Amino acid sequence: MRDVSHLPPQTADLNYVSDTNLSPEDQIDINLAFMYNQMVSGARKTELFMGCTYKAGKEGYCNGPGTIELAPHNALHTWIGSSLNPGREDMGKFYSAAKDPIFYAHHANIDRLWEVWREAHKQQLDIKDPDWLDSFFYFYDENLRLVRVKVGDVVDTIKLGYSYEQVHRPWLNMRPKPSYPPKLARQMLKTKEKNKLEMLSRTLVSSSELDTHGRALDASLTVKVRNHWRKKEKEEEKVIVVHGIEVKGDAYVKFDVYVNLIDQYKISPKFREFAGTFAHIPGGGAGKKKIDLKLGVSELLEDLEADQDESIWVTLLPTTPSCSNVTVGGVRMEYIK
């Protein structure tokens, strides 16, 4: 089952939360800027695009998804699923997603985007870890024979006998601009911080003020984060880490992340303040999973003229009601080589 209001010729929303009244042209502009963030400026390191590195053993487990896994991958699962079903089945939940044939085309497109990302970075960010390349799976082939396939055997589509059509990629040059002039924004942020001290606002805190057990994301939360400015080493990427995210396993959750946001009514991926998104598809279980969200922001901070500031303001903006059941452990900055 699919959402009938999203059938052709409706334009897909790659950062979907709920339906909007945007024209197709406006939606396409937002989609292009969003893809620039997810594929280019926010994915300049392997871990940012692919997610955290799994290793063998209990200590090797991690839960840190990459940029396009969260969106457009997760977001489009929800956009396609039927609004008549509580979990937007079929595509909106993992247990039912493969019942819809579009499941396979959707994941083929994610595979294609992997190839596009590799090409954009000239394969310099390919994973070379033998633990990953030599890991293997067992499958039955077309003759019902059990065969072992290594990950390293399938990373090159040419060896698998197929390649993707080369198409125009207008999002490669859709670098967003700030919603406000950076100097004006800095002045407004200082004023907001001063007012916060006077009003004791709950939604405007420093990273050190977050509770020991985290903070529920039942409303917009803006955190002052130390920028740890230093001279970057070559090829280093500055990264915002929203860590210790706890979310109920049966709830679709989505929140966006902005840097030095001035006006919460002027928000969109088409503005440079947008750093990324967190989108969690319900998996059918009720257990909670702790997740780390890492967002590359070196280029973003340069465009906001905040790359040398002592601190920045990171806003977590809930976009689904289920965010009231989400707890965030904290926000920090780090560097990735």
From TrEMBL:
InterPro entries recorded: Di-copper_centre_dom_sf (IPR008922), Polyphenol_oxidase_C (IPR022740), Polyphenol_oxidase_cen (IPR022739), Tyrosinase/Hemocyanin (IPR050316), Tyrosinase_Cu-bd (IPR002227)
Domain of life: Eukaryota
UniProt-recorded Gene Ontology molecular function terms: catechol oxidase activity; metal ion binding
The entry's keywords: Copper, Disulfide bond, Metal-binding, Oxidoreductase, Thioether bond
SUPFAM superfamilies on file: Di-copper centre-containing domain
Metal-binding recorded as keyword: yes
Cofactor: Cu(2+)
Domain Tyrosinase copper-binding: start-end pairs: 100-111
Family statement: Belongs to the tyrosinase family.
Name this protein carries in UniProt: Tyrosinase copper-binding domain-containing protein
Native source species: Gossypium aridum
Lineage: Eukaryota, Viridiplantae, Streptophyta, Embryophyta, Tracheophyta
